[in-house]
């Protein structure tokens, strides 16, 4: 009987298993801890340890690694590996106290993982879960600080107007009477219109700076008088100076003018504090405006001015008219002559922000005033506008493009319009008649604003600052703003 010899293949396999087992710690360190690729691992083992696997099938090698628990990527079982988490904590604690030498944890899959590596894996997993997990309930997003600052300006605007003027009038005419121009208002407006031409063009920056030196004293007189239109006057001024700031290209000039604007707003607040204290709405409003970023100051001032106009509409609408209701019109429009003046001033700087219903109300009020004050005055208004229409072809071309003859004609027509207007609103003019009745409709107002703006810009470009100021003051006077 011939004794059966063990196959060479089986002997090689057994020997091969023994070699693998012998080098297992080194292979694990290279493959798992140092994250070498399979090719890098086998090349290293052959070169350094004269160990060469008897087969080159990478899938079989990786299968052997899986049996041994060799995995580069840690895979945890949510339930079974809870013990491992506890062991991790215990192992790290004991390790810190040098009571154990083991620094590995065996997972439910059989994978043996270094404690530090497992801890790093758990931290990454926890961070990912926090970043991707959908929160329970609504998600709250905190608005930027500038949102709160803007809301504070609007709140202080409401508080000021409600505290001073809400429920303070019985008749609409009282609202209009209160808004009659006071000497301090007229003085401020003359200063403002003198500055506006310089503020509206970047090339006149140096002139604007010179004129702004007068602003503190002019502002002090305005605030000490504190006319009913003070908010509108302040917002209009801030809108123009911030528009100038936005148009400045030179960074140094921009920075310099920004400092001037903020110093002026802070000075305005300091004027109010001694008289009224730091809880006074106008003081708080000015202090808040001084904190707003340069890019946000313009839109905030526009919103606040618009709110002021809307609130004055509400104040006037809550009153009763002393005039015959049949003459005022049915239904009664919101607002009054004074609030129309507010909206005309706002229209000049932010036409797209005027609500459509406000435009309709303006036309209703102007038509009602035309009926109230009689045909003779209406005839003289029509005459003034007929002369003004002669300027339309010249304005369509543009003042800079017309010849000298047309320019003289334009100047003569402007002078005639001013003369006709002044003949009506001169010494014999009744103060109770609102000057806005010279605007027959909102379309008239838009034409007047455009015409005066073109004239103002043209005379500025020619260096005739007196005529430029006169053009601005005329529309201010026409709209009841001076």
UniProtKB/TrEMBL annotation:
It comes from Gnomoniopsis smithogilvyi. InterPro entries: Clr5_dom. This is Clr5 domain-containing protein. Residues 17-72 form the Clr5 domain.
